[in-house]
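Lecture 7 notes: from sequence to structure.

We start with a single chain of 741 residues. Read the sequence below before looking at the structure.
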Amino acid sequence: HVLWNMRGFIALVSGGKDSIFSIMECVAHEYKLEAVVNLSPTLEGSYPVEIDSYMYQSVASEGVRLIAEALQVPLYQFPISGKPHCQSLQYEESADDEVEDLFQALSKVKSDFPSVHFVSSGAILSDYQRIRVEHVASRLRLQPLAFLWQVPTDNLIRAMLAASLDAIIVKIASFGLEPKRHLGAHLSDVVSNLRDLSQPPWSLNICGEGGEYESFTLDCPLFRRRIQIRSPPRVVCHSEDESYPVAYLHLTRLELEDKPTESLRTSTADMLSIEGVDPFSEEPKLLRPFLSPIDRLRDLRHQLTLEIRNDRTRFQRNSQCVPLSNPRTNVPTTKVESKFQTFGNGAFWVTTICVGIEKSVNGNDLKVLGSLTKQVTQVAISELQSQLGHANLQTDCVIHNLVVLNQPLSFEVFNAFNEAYVAEFGLPWETAPRDDRKPRSYSRMFPPTRACVSVNRLLGPGGQCFESLTSVAMSLTVVLHPSPSNQPAALTGLCRGLHVRSLSHWAPANIGPYSQALSFTRLGSSTESEHIDDTAEWTFYSGQIGLIPETMTLPQFDGPCVEDGGDEDFQWNRSLRTQCLLVIRHCHRTLKAMSCAVWSDLAVGICYGTSSSALRCARQTFHDAVCDLWYDSHASEKKHTVPFPKGNCLVQCLCESHIAWLLVSDLPKQASVEWQFVTRSPSCLQVDRPPVRRDSYDALTGSGASLIFCPVDYSPRHCDLNVIPVVGILDQSDAAVGLYL
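Now the structure, written as C-alpha cells:
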C-alpha cells in the first residue's frame, strides 16, 4: 500500500522539458524530490551514441549531470545495455530488454531510498512508455506519478512557458523543422512556429510527442543554478532530406551559473503561486500553470460541459471513426454448462455464486471481520474454479467480476477482500507465491474489470438469508469470454485493455487488481432478432467512483451546491454534486480512451447509489452530460427521445432505457455513487428494445434477461437465473431490473 504521508519520489529524467515539468508538477502536489534517474546510451568518444528508442531519449544525456546538480539531488545514471525485444504495446518481461535496464536502475535507487514510494515520468500520450514505466514500478511496489498524462498538448506547452521553463531543441525529425532555424533554438522563441505547424494541413505535435523534436532544459524555477552553453554545440546530421531532415546536437561545453535567489520556487506554495504570461494570448494575459487539486474542481460543471461538447464535435467531424482493432475470436463451440447463461450470440457466459460464513461472537471486531472476508472470498473463488473446471475453463477467461459483499466496505474489509482476490485475478507480480498446479500456457496481460458494492442482506442458493449482523457473505457474478482450445484465453492477449496505474489529472489510477476497461471483438453470425453486424466489439468497464484523481480521495465540502439560477430542484449537497460530476468525467474519459464514439456506443449503464438523493443527483448529472449534451436534445421537462433506426418509433430518455438505478448499502471508500458501463460497436441503439426493463421479478423471468437486479425481499428463494441482490430500485417499491445484452 502506498504510504501517502511519505511523499518522497524518484524522478525519471531524460533532460527534456517533459520530465522536468513533471517534477515541477509533483512538487506542486506536495511530493519531495529525493533523486533523479537517467538511462543513457554508451559513449562514442566523449559523446553518447544517439539511439532510436520509443522508451528513452538519448540525445543530450551528457547534460543530465548538471540538471541533477541544479536540482541539488543525487543522480543515478545507468547505461542502456538491452534492446527493445518486446515491441508490442503490452510489455512482457525479457531478460535482455531495454526496459529491464530501468528495473535494475530503480532497484538500486529503491535500495538506497527504502522510504521512497513514488516515481515520476514525463509521459504525455505514449501508452508504450507509460505501460513500461508502470510495469517496472509495480514490480518494485512504487506508485507511478504522471501528471502530464493526457493533458492537451497546447495547454501543456503554454503551462511550461508560463512557468518559466527554459528549454532548447536538441533534435529534429519532422517535416517543417529545419536544422538552421530550430536546432538550439529556445522553445519560447519558436513556439508560435510550432503551433502553426500543428494546425491543418500540417500535423506536428506541438510537444513533440510524435518524435518530431526533443529538448534539453537549461533552467526552471526549481533549479538552484541555471545551465549555460559556453561553446557552440556540434551539429550531427542523420538525414539531410530537405522534407524530413533528421539532426541533433552534441552539447560540447556546459556550465552552471548562479541566478537570483528571488527566482527560485522550491516549495509547494511557491509552485502554486507562479503566474506567467500566456504565450498564445493576443492580449497580455497571466496564466497559473499549477493548480491544487481543489482549485482544479472550481467550475467543474462548466469544464465538463466544454469537454463533452468538444469531443462530440470531433466525433461528428470524423463520423467514419473506426475503433482500434482487437484480436478477433470465433464464438466457441463449447457446450454451455447448465450453470451459465449467455449473451452476445454465445460469446459471453455469465454465472453467479453466493457463499457465506457465520460470524463468531466477536465477529464485528475489525480484525476478525477482515479474516472472515478473506475466507469468504477464497470460498467464492474456489467455487468459481470448480464451475470453470467442469467446463474445461480457467480464470484467464474471466473478463468481469461484479462483487456484492454483505459488510460495509471499510478499509479492513476491502483490504482483506483484495488480498484474496488478487491471488487469483491479479497480475503475476501482484500475486503471492502459490502452488500453481494448473500452469497457464500464456501469461496474463490484464486483470478483469470489476465493480464492488455492499448490500447488507444476501440470499444463498438454498434460500438461506445472509444477514450482515450474523454472517459474512459474498455474491460473485462473473462474465466469461471462453475461447477455442487452440487460442489463448481472453486475458492473455485476445483483448484490448485500459490499465492506467499512474496518478494523474486524467482519471483515477488503478491501485487495485482490475483494469479500467477491456474490449473484445467476437465473430458470429447475425440473427434476425439482433440485427447486428457479424463482427461486434464489446467493452466492459470497471466501476468508477467520484475520486479526485490527484489524491485518490473523495471531495469534501460543506453546504449545498445551488446551480441554474438557484432552482430548488438543483440544490444538492456540494460534496455529492462534485462526486457525481467527477465520476461522469472519469467515465467519459475512459470511454473516449477506448473509442472515439464515446457515448454513442452505449449498451447499458448501471448506477449504484447509497441513497435515493444520491441516485437522483447522479441521474440529473448523467442526463445533462449525456442525454442533453452528447445527444444534443433539449426537450421540455428535461426529457428527450432517441430515435431507434428501425421504423420511426421513438424510445424514452436514455436515463429510462439504458440505465439501471440501484440502491445499495455501501460503496468503496464510502462513495455516494458508483457507475459502470458496457458498450458495443456497432451501436446498441440499433436494436428493437431498450436494454433496461423495470418490472416484477416474475415478469422478468423467462424474458431473456442476461442479468436481473432484485431486492432481497422480492427475490425467489430458489433461482437458476443470475439474480444480483440490491437494497432497492430508484422510485420503484417492488420492482426488479432486467438487463438485456
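Residues 691-741 form one domain. Keep this in mind for problem set 3.
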